[in-house]
Amino acid sequence: MSLPKTLAEDVARNLVMVARLIDEDPEQAYAYSRIALRLASRVAAVREAAGFAAYATQKYAEALAEFRAAKRMTGSVELWPVMADCERGLGRPERAMAMAGEPEVQKLDKAGQVEMRLVAAGARRDMGQIDAAIVTLQSSELASNAVHPWTPRLRYAYADALLAAGREDEAREWFGKALEADKDGATDASDRLAELDGVEFVDALDEDEDDAAQAPAAAADDDRGDGKSKDEDEDEDEDGTSES
Hints:
With about 240 residues, the protein is mostly helical. About 70% of the residues lie in helices and about 0% in strands. It has helices at about 5-20, 25-40, 45-55, 60-75, 80-90, 95-100, 110-125, 130-135, 140-145, 150-165, 170-180, 190-195, 205-220, 230-240.
């Protein structure tokens, strides 16, 4: 669908802000998405952006409705995994599992199929089926030494599932593999490894704040506002008088 030039520019500006803010300020991104939606609700890209903004703010019912609208407009199945994850967010993991078995999954590209596998494993965990979640993640993509954009998250999810099953040694191994593949810091695999090894990190900023909070108390102890220091009081106690 084409829009008048001025309207198209307004919509585009709002969509740019959605993309720019969705990670650092999801609520603000959501607000921009609502403006774009009011301006051009019949544009598939607007419905998709609105869906992702709602998803980022955990408005899963709204996100699912927008994704479904975008899918109807385009006929594309690329949103299928995130639609299934919305079902998880709504507390309906069984629906997410049903979607994992639908023909749409076979139409996804490799990245989409991996994403669907991650969602299905998450749904299994939602239902308390941790061993089934582990099996769901076991695949040729997991076993491959090749690194793709989705590799860190897949390895991380597998490590996390192993840990939930009490298989700590295997979990440590796979957190390590996730870290090896995670060049962009997409996961907190390094922190999880440190936790398993009993390493605790102390925030230097917190230490500075603690020192700053203790400083006034120390000053008050030395100078209580009567012009006398603690040492001068001790001299009075010894001599009975203050030195003058």
